[in-house]
């Protein structure tokens, strides 16, 4: 899995103040065989007032986290849809038909969906509404699919279990039931090892059991299904006694159309499950693409807002995105923070050996609390992240 480091630094890090020179200087801190730095274009948004920027910084931090959670949910749905098949999951994790990394490397602000000439609060509200709507749609559709799938599994288990649990609709016949004003036929599933004991004792399990009335209806590898004739007023007592003896009374009323109804119900559930599977997959796949795209737009706004708050006006900073394995990107991050620690002011100093280090005191804690989302204070604007 790749790790990404979005960052911006003032062009004053080079004497020329040129953006290309600044970009190449930042790039020199990389590990050529393990990392790559790509330009990351940030539009010139309407800045507004300082108070507005501070408010939007906090809103964007919350929206960033919400988008990341929504993406993770869409991936969870894909995992469930494909039963954890990583190949199929990966095939469906695309952003505008590209891998996330390709999308990020060639990122360009979507001017049609999110007009950069609008005030930042307006753009934030559009992104917030889109992310919330997609997240809710995915959750709702997946919940419907889960419900239908659970119902189908229940129906299938009823048809595939043993005689103590499965549906008896396809087994029972009218001849198995005694129709009388006072008598009824009780159905009892008995474990095979207990069959002899049952046939020897069933007549005394409750009052008014008709002697020698037990008969075998069906059997499988584990159970034998017996029918026993008993007076109706003692049928419940017979069932209670059967449970005490670890037999399984089956409270089933015979219906001539029960088997056909069950088959029709199962077929309907299968068709509905298949339909919702396709709809859920489509929504999760589309949702991942739209959410991941929206997430990067949120991060772009965060980069811009904090760069303005950190570096001031006029706008003069260079931005880029590092890509690589986690350990390699961490080394790049540490190298850059060491090189440009002076941008962090009093938050950084040197240890006894002369190495750059972040101070750990109340002033630094106050600086960290003032950053967007209360993240760890760093000497320049940076966001380290991965995607589900």
TrEMBL record:
InterPro entries per the UniProt record, alphabetical: ATPase_V1-cplx_csu, Vac_ATP_synth_c_sf
UniProt keyword terms in alphabetical order: Hydrogen ion transport, Ion transport, Transport
Coiled-coil regions listed: none
One Pfam family per UniProt: V-ATPase_C
Record bears the keyword Transport: yes
MF annotations from Gene Ontology: proton-transporting ATPase activity, rotational mechanism
Annotated GO CC locations: vacuolar proton-transporting V-type ATPase, V1 domain
Domain of life of the native organism: Eukaryota
Function: Subunit of the V1 complex of vacuolar(H+)-ATPase (V-ATPase), a multisubunit enzyme composed of a peripheral complex (V1) that hydrolyzes ATP and a membrane integral complex (V0) that translocates protons. V-ATPase is responsible for acidifying and maintaining the pH of intracellular compartments and in some cell types, is targeted to the plasma membrane, where it is responsible for acidifying the extracellular environment. Subunit C is necessary for the assembly of the catalytic sector of the enzyme and is likely to have a specific function in its catalytic activity.
Similarity comment: Belongs to the V-ATPase C subunit family.
Subunit composition and interactions: V-ATPase is a heteromultimeric enzyme composed of a peripheral catalytic V1 complex (components A to H) attached to an integral membrane V0 proton pore complex.
Protein name (Swiss-Prot/TrEMBL): V-type proton ATPase subunit C
Species of provenance: Drechslerella stenobrocha 248
Upper taxonomic lineage: Eukaryota, Fungi, Dikarya, Ascomycota, Pezizomycotina
